[in-house]
Give the backbone structure.
Amino acid sequence: MKLYLSSYKLGNKAEELKKWITEHGNKICLIPNSRDVFPDSERKTAGIHADAQELTDLGFDVTIVSLEDYFYEKEELVERLKEFNAFYVIGGNTFALRQAMYLSGFDEYLKTLENNPNYLYAGYSAGICVLAKDMHGLELCDNPNINPYGLDTMWNGLGYFDYLFLPHYKSDHKETKLIDDCVEYCDKHNIKYKTLHDGDVIIEDTRKVIEEDMERE
């Protein structure tokens, strides 16, 4: 599975997404559940649709799918997602996103795709932070206790990286100071991390990530 990991929005390698469309088609599923910590409002809806519009402007055919509609209905989610080979997971609260992935089975579904290069996981901010093995350290920038679904806080991420992604580093973003606090905390507690400035994009392949992880073990 190809990983397109951006600090903020689509970042500076959008040509890679256009290339994906050319080679794999333009259907993409936008996952908005990191925003479930915010009350429903026109502003919340407008923000999600703005993210969808950026994809549309690139040439994608975007469908917004809320994982909350499939909590405890994992088989139904799998059926719903069969028409997509690309996912775009937007920013918000990492801990809420992780729980939504767990309750819907989206995390398990991604595991079935990780060796298939014909699938794309793209995301920014919370959408990439959730890929870590352990999310301790992110509580300095995301509140882990604001829980829209009634679960205890989940600290285990999706498990692809043994370090944290810290987006918005030294950027013109409202969370930049919080990221500085995360960096200081991680340094103090020997937590591995990788900072990204807004605009930065990391492109990886889950097969390579898993192989490198096995070699380290």
Q: What stands out?
A: The beta strands are 2-6, 27-31, 61-64, 86-89, 120-124, 164-166, 193-195, 201-205.
